[in-house]
Amino acid sequence: MARVLLVEDDPQVGELVRRFLEREGFAVAWVRFGREALERVGEEGADVVVLDRGLPDMEGLEVLKGLRSLDPLLPVLLLTGRADEESRVEGLLEGADDYLGKPFSLRELLARIKALLRRAGKEGRRRFGPLEVDLEGRRAYLEGEPLRLSPTEMNLLLVFAQAPGRVFTRGELLERVWGPDFEGSERVVDAYVRLLRKKLGDDPEAPRFIETVVGLGYRFLGD
């Protein structure tokens, strides 16, 4: 799921937007101060930022400049009560990717967020700590570096990444990755999990990504 950082000091607006976006399938982090936003992006990153221009500790455009210094390609939508043309132009010239005035429609906000994610190529991407998985492009990156995975290893990772937290039995993984007509043993699943763990730098005794569930199968650990 795409990660939205919502920077909004109004508790009613913030709660409303957070709940709506979570119902639409986004992972939403909501902060009320500009400095919190900069710290979170610096430490954890984000896929898109919805930034209120009027914050109690920093002016929104100042926060925008800070975000740009942390990640020049991070999509940022300014959310503000200043809807006049001069303010919109100023925000866009300072580096905002889009501008939405208050009051606003939640459906329009959703459409604009999805458009920003499409333009940034981040739809269909999921991040698990240092691991990013591009579900549509069939690519994976660890600490920003591309992982060299075989087609079978990638298929296994994609199955895991689409359902973090779910326990898959070996039989389920065998059917999803190798297909229902595969005649080999379930031991092939264990062998490929070992290969995938090695490429992920994952320690079975203290897993970051793939956890063995004794007697059942494997679980992918999502943030």
From TrEMBL:
Biological processes annotated in GO: regulation of DNA-templated transcription
SMART domains: REC, Trans_reg_C
PTM-bearing positions, type 4-aspartylphosphate: D52
One of the Pfam families matching this protein, by short name: Response_reg
Keywords: DNA-binding, Phosphoprotein, Transcription, Transcription regulation, Two-component regulatory system
Keyword Ubl conjugation among UniProt keywords: no
Domain OmpR/PhoB-type per the UniProt entry, residue ranges: 123-222
InterPro entries xrefs: CheY-like_superfamily, OmpR/PhoB-type_DNA-bd, Sig_transdc_resp-reg_receiver, WalR-like, WH-like_DNA-bd_sf
DNA-binding region: 123-222
GO cellular component terms attached to this protein's record: cytosol; protein-DNA complex
Gene3D superfamilies: 3.40.50.2300, 6.10.250.690, Winged helix-like DNA-binding domain superfamily/Winged helix DNA-binding domain
Domain Response regulatory: 3-117
SUPFAM superfamilies with a match to the protein in the record: CheY-like (SSF52172)
Molecular function terms from GO: phosphorelay response regulator activity; transcription cis-regulatory region binding
Protein name from the UniProt record: Two component transcriptional regulator, winged helix family
